[in-house]
Amino acid sequence: MKKEKRFSKVRSKIDGLLSKMERQKKIIQLIWAAALIVAGIGVFYRIPQVMLQLEQIKQFSSENYFIRFCFYLLGFLLIVGGLKKVYKYCGKPDGKDPDS
Fold first, then answer.
1. Are 40 and 76 in contact (CB under 8 A)?
2. What's the pTM?
3. Which of 13, 40, 56, 60 is an S-S bond match for 78, by CB 3.0 to 4.6 Å?
């Protein structure tokens, strides 16, 4: 009986630590999501300035549209990835899969 009581105390402490770690992990993931979104917006902001510089380089002048497309795709993917992480953080109730 005494061992069971000690075991339950240890188990409750472990459960408390694990739930604290899960909360910290979620907060870190939310910060990472915000960083992805900001990076994607930064890419969109910098594209016109970088493209002006790339147009001056003769080797890149023929691939101007492809390079612009790749930059916009990169920015779009960063923003979508960040929004996906925010959705996982805010949109999913505890213990349930968003598909169900």
1. yes
2. 0.70
3. 40
